Amino acid sequence: MAVDQIKRLYESMPAKLDRARKRFGRALTLSEKILVAHADDFDKQEWSRGKAQLRLRVDRVSLQDATGQMALLQFMQAGKKQAAVPSTVHCDHLIRAQSGASEDTKRAITENNEVYEFLHSASRKYGIGFWKPGAGIIHQVVLENYAFPGGLMIGADSHTPNSGGLGMVAIGVGGADCGEAMAGLAWEVLDPSLIGVRLTGKLAGWTSAKDVITHLLGVLTVKGGTNKIVEYFGPGASSISATGKGTICNMGAELGATTSLFHFDERMSSYLAATDRADIARLAEQYREHLVSDPEVLADPRKYYDEIVEIDLSELEPTIVGPHSPDRARPISKLAAEVKKEGWPAQIKAGLIGSCTNSSYEDMKRSAHIAMQALKAGLKAKTPFLVTPGSERIYQTIKRDGIMETFEKIGGTVLANACGPCIGQWKRLDVGKDESNTIVSSFNRNFPGRNDGSAATLSFLTSPEIVTALVFGGTLEFDPVHGTIPGPDGKAFRFTPPESEELPAKGFAKGEEGYEAPAADGDAVQVKIDPNSQRLQLLQPFPRWDGKDFLELPILVKTKGKTTTDHISPAGAWLLVRGHLDKISDNMFLGAVNAFTGEAGKGVNPLTGEAGQNFSKMARELKAKGQGWLVIGDENYGEGSSREHAAMSPRYLGCKVVIVRSFARIHETNLKKQGILPLTFAKASDYDLFEQPDRVSVTGLAQLAPGKPADVVIHKPGGKTVAIQCRHTFTDEQIGWFKAGSALNALK
Ligand code: MIC
Ligand code: SF4
Q1: Neighbour tally for 704: CB within 10 Å
Q2: What whole-number distance in Å separates Cα of residue 88 and Cα of residue 178?
Q3: What are 670-688's pLDDT values in tens digits?
Q4: For residue 748, what pLDDT band results from cuts at 50, 70 and 90?
Q5: Three-class SS state of 434
């Protein structure tokens, strides 16, 4: 965003915030200031945390190449000439990690040519900035170029909150939300509750930003942040670099939080200046009082936040989380005992650092500091070590400063500036399929099957410096903070804590940054989609609701336990067809654990009674017969990625209703947007009432109204029925989406 637009926003803030202070009758938190400053119509807007639906005007939209395909296809259906707000597309998710940066990027460009051509031509046409493959991971590139204090951004990726590290409200959403904002509509979100995290003490020694968030995940769990903003403040905050703050906000997505952010401070200023934005830093300094909470809030936070968590950074220990869930946290010193108790394989098969969460200069330098110590002591890495830099700037800078050489000396491979192994784009040949094994990374996600497609891989997440040290221990039983490993001379070797400056002393080195501006005349550009494409398919509108109740629907799947969007619509090889709804729908529920059988990806065919059948295949059979179906789900259903394929595929294959114990925010909205009815049990234990042969009706749909429970009847095989009540969170407008068949239909 141009600096004069930011200036206009800042200039408008004092008056808007004063109005809000008057109306609310109190001082404001930073989150509220940013939301208020972006209200579509402050006076008409109702403000009530956890209740009101906010209509906001966003400053930016960011898209990546996997979810961005659907976002753009939906935007194109709106028939606009240009994106109404500054937007960018980042090609990062489709590069497969195999042999190192340069070959992997070349291969990706050949393999994904069609998709890149589509994204490129659409970007040129609609006034969208285009970041080429290899330019970097969306969140790192956005942090380096676009994020700014006090801004509001949405992005079609759940880790969009990374920009909270620069004091921005940055929210992950589905592609439909992005398409609508780009079409010029106000963007809606539930007025979030606020968690205040008060930081005292100082980060020092081994402890890093990653430990703040992995620790907090242990405290709040993966659903603790749902429909909440996590706002960090307190004297400890200034001991964390801007990129460290980015790490914390990025991984706040794992809390299920709407977003996370820090108050503006001098660490943000230095980062802005180091990334060629000294003008924005100066402007933010000038408007500082509006880019932090009011003094009354800081003096008595409990009065202003719905929850308060206190973290003393000086007491915090390096933390490691996993396997299989990012909230399974413990200090590294307690890991060895747990590994023994649980019988997890202690040997580490791979160590990976980088990703959008942890690939700052500071992260790389601290990791290299550990690697250097080991090199000096003559130690050898015991496991493969993979590094994914977040951007071309980071890559060029670590190359110039000898950091890359250090990683290569310990046998590490520097991969492309892309998501790679973090999203399952990792061609791994060292372990057999279904072979139980352990990996450690500095990434943010560790759901089963996430990195290498194998649910038998146990993935642990921790800071990059701890990952680097573990690579030399080769086992989870090694605690790099307190323990020793044998050196080549037989003597015990102990690492000293990692050290690094936060920003490169010589500034960031720049290579070919990989940005391409949109065409001057968009009208002259044609969007390239081959009608015979195997990768892209133009969207057909979903059918309108026929006005009838849903009667006696079969249960396609009742999922048990964690059902992330990775379980509903896996990534990895399926990324190839993210722009082709029909083809990607073959992956539907491949990872979901069937509550009736315990099997993943398979169920009993409601038409034939046959067991062990693929969900997508069964759904297609039902669809061919004109028979709708429903899904029963567990807690925090749809956690994780923002991919709306997890809602579009079920919708496309005939799903009418999803009833769960609870939803993750983005997925619930995605279901609504695509015309599916998301319900939650009024009584969580009602989940247990559903059995495989049951049929389920949802009645009174014509009277569907905000706040009014929905009536659900379970029909048992003998003719017995059980009536239960379910809740929904539809607003009037959203009921309109349901009736129209999708939000997009309602728009037209
Ligand atoms: C992720 O980290 O899960 C992803 C891959 O970045 C997703 C987006 C996607 O599925 O393309 C996300 O976080 O939203
Ligand atoms: Fe990419 Fe992983 Fe970040 Fe998602 S979490 S944007 S897959 S690096």
Answers
A1: 18
A2: 11
A3: 999 999 999 999 999 999 9
A4: confident
A5: coil
